[in-house]
Amino acid sequence: MVNDFIKYEAPILTAEEMLEKSRSFFFNMNQRRSIREFSEKPVSKEVIENIIKTASTSPSGAHKQPWTFCIITNPTIKKQIRIAAEKEEKESYDHRMSDEWLRDLEKFATNWQKPFIETAPYIIVIFKKIYDVEEDGTKHTNYYVQESVGIAAGMLITAIHQAGLVTLTHTPSPMNFLNKILDRPANEKPFLLLPVGFPADDARVPDIERKKLDKISVWY
Ligand SMILES: Cc1cc2nc3c(=O)[nH]c(=O)nc-3n(C[C@H](O)[C@H](O)[C@H](O)COP(=O)(O)O)c2cc1C
Which pTM was predicted? Predict the structure, then answer.
């Protein structure tokens, strides 16, 4: 089937506007940090919906949009997720992580405890859809699922920051407990868990630096 095509309306910027926009966007994004201490202050549902809609503008392999965003506000479900996540995290910190990994994490002062799962007003769990299933059970392949969902997650994190909110890219591993708690089907696999909200008044972040441009880019 061949789709119709429509004209692409490019945003038109002068060279100066382009420079200024790219500069101010970098300045803003450079202030983004992963936050591990959250306030209970509420956030409007519409803001969260706009953030999810922004993530859904992500490109994806063959436009399959292989993602489901689960948004959790229910305190009972949050508690279940926290208990299950902490169980896996305790096992990881006590037995599964290598000495090198634990040393690399020292500067973050993290441990198996994850109180933010209950404190943050929203938990967003992104599921990647390994394949699609029609109502009659027919399965369809998705392509470049990892790349597609990774890009959507990046856009989600960007939108959260742009809205003046904070998040943490959290990966309690393994995460399959999330399928059970959230009753997700077998074609969906948990990708990331992101608490979303305002930072706690006294939230602190590790004093770390980002690699400079000449260390991350090669020009030809
Ligand atoms: C894929 C991925 C998984 C992460 N998992 C965790 C996690 O489970 N727990 C945590 O505290 N931070 C986690 N982080 C956050 C990183 O530690 C953080 O992004 C990094 O230290 C840079 O800090 P910044 O985000 O404040 O710039 C993760 C980040 C990424 C991209």
Answer: 0.97
